[in-house]
Design goal:
By secondary structure, this protein is an all-alpha fold. The chain contains 22 helices and no strands. It has a domain at about 65-75 and about 90-185. It starts with a helix and ends in a 5-residue tail after the last helix.
Length: about 425
């Protein structure tokens, strides 16, 4: 008993005291970290500097890429003096770390979105660390886009350095760079363009894909400026890619505004004009068949109008082939009507060759009909070569007729060579 009072009791009391003090210490630490959330950067000694919106020269911009990369890397290493020596980044607040590792997509995105909204020069590192907690690849594509857009408003050059050096090359890098440039373009178009031109990794300026990201960003909020920059691009891959974003945004304004934009594109660049008309026609036809049909009816017959006709009939025939055929027959320009008949036949015969044949039978044989009949022969030869031979015989142009007959006869000889040979002899089509 005396032994317990002298030795055991003091030992027990010291153990309890140590436990209480330890619990108090760690409890307060966890609570403090939890309260801090994404903004616990007050204890960090390092932070990314926010670039001023004005820069002295293009040379200063272009020379700062490596500086931005080094600045971000140095700050990532020194941002938390309490981190372990082998730690590459500061620890996440416990609540954010727990949510980012969880499987609840809604909670994860909600927490991450709050972090991105609160992102500034003092807590960039923490948001980036939260992003890096996610598995690499397409599964974090949305989070990557949010990070890049928000970071672009704070320090676009540091964001670009991170995108080029840290994002997954196969699934993220290109999209990340586009998002940074798109965000940068909305706040400082001239700075973004200057950087993209000076830092292009393409051998040819006309293939500078970074300018596509800038035009994409501008098109979201300032179509006129985006269109102006687009028209200044030299002919090449970048211009072609950028045209898709502009066509998409102008189509959202409605048929009238979209057509006005397309028709004002310079005719001297015929290939680009044809591309734009085709892209816009495809989008308008999905939303406004009547408006697109009226547009084609008023256009001159050229490659651009043909592209729109193709896209229009692609949407119209599955919905209302009879209505499409009525529109085609009503076209006043004979060349345009002949082309439209051929395209209508090509699409209609794939789904309903019987109705297509009935429609063709209502029209008198003529040179204008030759291309449509030749297309019909091509579509039905494999299924009904004998019937295709009969249709081919109605074609008036000798060259078109010979081509259609040879196509149908070739298909027939594969199915029933004896009958095909008999037909040839009966119709004086021997070798």
């Amino acid at each position: 008993m005396k032994f317990f009072l002298k030795i055991g009791l003091p030992w027990a009391l010291s153990l309890v005291t140590a436990f209480c003090l330890g619990g108090l210490f760690f409890g307060e630490s966890d609570e403090s970290a939890t309260r801090g959330g994404i903004n616990h950067s007050e204890n960090k000694k390092g932070s990314l500097k926010t670039n001023e919106p004005t820069r002295e020269s293009v040379q200063a911009r272009t020379g700062s890429s490596q500086d931005s990369e080094k600045r971000f890397s140095d700050q990532r290493e020194s941002s938390d003096p309490t981190a372990r020596p082998d730690s590459a980044s500061p620890p996440l607040p416990p609540n954010l770390r727990r949510i980012m590792k969880g499987r609840d997509l809604i909670s994860r995105l909600g927490s991450y979105l709050d972090a991105v909204r609160a992102m500034d020069g003092s807590n960039v590192n923490e948001v980036v660390t939260a992003f890096e907690e996610l598995p690499k690849g397409y599964g974090r594509h949305l989070e990557m886009k949010l990070l890049m857009r928000s970071w672009a408003a704070i320090d676009p050059e540091a964001a670009l350095a991170y995108a080029n050096n840290s994002l997954d090359k196969k699934s993220e890098r290109r999209f990340g760079v586009y998002e940074v440039l798109a965000g940068w373009a909305n706040s400082d178009p001239q700075g973004a363009v200057a950087w993209a031109k000076a830092n292009s990794n393409n051998a040819k300026n006309e293939d500078n894909a970074m300018l596509v990201g800038i035009i994409r960003g501008l098109a979201e909020n300032n179509l006129a400026v985006a269109d102006e920059l687009f028209r200044e691009l030299p002919e090449g891959g970048a211009r072609w890619q950028a045209s898709t974003f502009l066509a998409q945004e102008y189509a959202k304004l409605g048929t009238v505004e979209a057509i006005k934009w397309a028709e004002n594109f310079p005719t001297k660049d015929s290939r680009m004009r044809e591309t734009i008309l085709g892209q816009l026609g495809a989008r308008l036809a999905r939303e406004d068949l009547a408006g697109t049909a009226d547009w084609v009816s008023r256009m001159e017959h050229d490659k651009g109008s043909q592209r729109i006709t193709d896209n229009l009939l692609m949407q119209w025939v599955p919905q209302d082939a009879a209505g499409a055929s009525e529109w085609v027959q009503g076209l006043k320009d004979s060349q345009k009507r002949s082309y439209a008949m051929k395209q209508l036949t090509a699409r209609w015969s794939l789904t309903d060759p019987v109705s297509t044949a009935k429609w063709l039978n209502t029209l008198p044989a003529s040179p204008e009909m030759d291309s449509a009949v030749g297309e019909f022969v091509s579509r039905i030869s494999a299924r009904d070569p004998e019937g295709a031979m009969g249709w081919a015989m109605t074609i008036q142009d000798p060259a078109e007729k010979s081509k259609a007959l040879n196509r149908a006869l070739g298909a027939w000889e594969k199915i029933d060579p004896a009958k095909a040979e008999s037909w040839k002899q009966a119709n004086n089509l021997g070798n």
